[in-house]
Amino acid sequence: MRLVFAVSLGVMIASGVLIWTNKGSSGEWHFLTGTLEEINKVTSDYDIVYELIPAEGDAPRSFEHLAQILLIDQGGEVRGAFLGGTSEEGDVIPPAFLAEKISTLLTGVGDPLGSAGPASGFELTNQNGKRVKLSDFQGRVVVMTFFYTTCPVNFCPLLNANLMQARDSLDEPLREKVVLLSITFDPEVDTPAVLKKYAKERGFK
Predict the structure, then answer these.
(1) Of the candidates 85, 88, 19, the residue with the CA atom closest to the CA atom of residue 52
(2) Taking all residues of the chain, what is their mean pLDDT, rounded to a whole number?
């Protein structure tokens, strides 16, 4: 039986999702903010049903911290909405699972993914102060998450290491066709300047 959770993104500030990488990682990563109205609209548009990511082996099912991960294909369709969690006890976001799904979207090889319909468009501001539309990335696979820069430190390192590993485990030609979007829950704190500093510390310009 497939286990799904209906998760309200608006309450996830309490647990949060933070995305980072290091200078050994390649690829495009946008950290996005906007007005409170713009952010609220995005979180409302993506307040959908998320499928629980299966754990590897005997990994514990702890939901102290939760993360939503959306996969949007080259044509702008939502092809995956996954819910995962991490804790000090272990990891329930297997990088291999995400890498397989991303690879399937890029190559067509593997179990086909269903569609949840067209992704809701938006226009936000990235860490360089540039206005960015979701449609700007048509033709590439988008991995989209929600975060804020003051995310609890006992959650973010494990989660983000897994997302980075999933993307970087792809062959380089595929890796360059993947773009990561991290949308802040806290636009009043996470201004473009704050996001730029945050991204620079993690090897992104």
Answers:
(1) 85
(2) 78
